[in-house]
Structure prediction request, 206 residues.
Amino acid sequence: MEFDKLVVSFLVDEVVGGFFVNVPPGHVACIHDLGRGVLKKVWGPGLHLKIPFWQRAKLFNAQIIEYLIRHDFDLSNTEAMGDEAITGKTSEGKNIQVEGSILLTIDKKRANELWENIGDSFVSKIVRPVSRSRIRSVMSEISLDQLTSYRTQVEEKIGNELNKIYSKSGIICDGFLLSEVKDLGSLKSHKDDKVLFTKKKKKKKK
Prediction:
């Protein structure tokens, strides 16, 4: 499995043939049995025995993964861990554009439920639509002044709102971080766009 695929998705690999499934550290495996469906037992790191071809294993990355929200994100792969910048309105009707990061991980004990109930496409089915909806909803409840003055509280509120829905499907939101919020002004022109705040760049040591 290529390294770039491992870090941008929860789904790591699928094992069909062979008697053994090797689950690396930071990962879990679920088993689909042709006679019983997805088994309830979730395997942790280590070497496990399975019935070749009758059972197939799905490996999941159980580490924390950053879901990026930025204006130049490539959505050609619908299951990539990210999204384009999200636009919405504040409580006073101002048009804004939000960029940030959602820290996600799967509930290891419920990885089998995630696979059975949602399948492989849970980014496009759950993560992305929920993040768009909840972020827009929270932004609509606050003003621009509140957004800039209470940034940490806004991040916490969005993280809590996301986790309420994600947790129902076996996904855990470990936090939400704003990186940039832009006041779009008039949507007919970009000339009056104004960056309210952006992520500070670390100074390089001499």
